[in-house]
Write a structure and sequence with these properties.
The structure is a single chain. A four-stranded antiparallel β-sheet has the order 2-3-1-4. By secondary structure, it is of the alpha+beta class. The chain has a single domain, classed as Alpha-Beta Plaits (2-Layer Sandwich), CATH 3.30.70.100. The chain is built from three helices and four strands, in the order βαββααβ. Helix content is 38%, strand content 31%. The chain is globular.
């Protein structure tokens, strides 16, 4: 099975609340085999909407990446991000 990536583009509007999300989301992601490849690192916006925080997480496969998002632990973390950020998040399957 091909690996998959979470690709997130985030604008943090409440850093304190978002920090609670990040603290709880990390273990939920790790529990599903997720590995951060990029998280709030330098970037160059070439097209589209600019969001200052960009995240790429590698997962074993697409199904695991989607299951992580819907997991009880990740959804509990996500409560802190809602209202504290504007986010776009997608799952992209890698080419084999």
């Amino acid at each position: 099975m091909p690996q998959a990536y979470w690709i997130g583009h985030i604008e943090v509007t409440n850093p304190e609340a978002y920090a609670l999300y990040a603290q709880a989301a990390g273990p939920a992601i790790a529990a599903h085999g997720g590995k951060f490849l990029a998280r709030a690192t330098r970037y160059v916006q070439l097209e589209g909407n600019d969001r200052a925080r960009n995240v790429v997480v590698l997962f074993p496969d697409l199904e695991t990446a989607v299951a992580c998002y819907h997991s009880e632990a990740y959804q509990a973390a996500l409560v802190h991000a809602r209202g504290a950020s504007v986010r776009d998040l997608m799952v992209v399957e890698a080419n084999e």
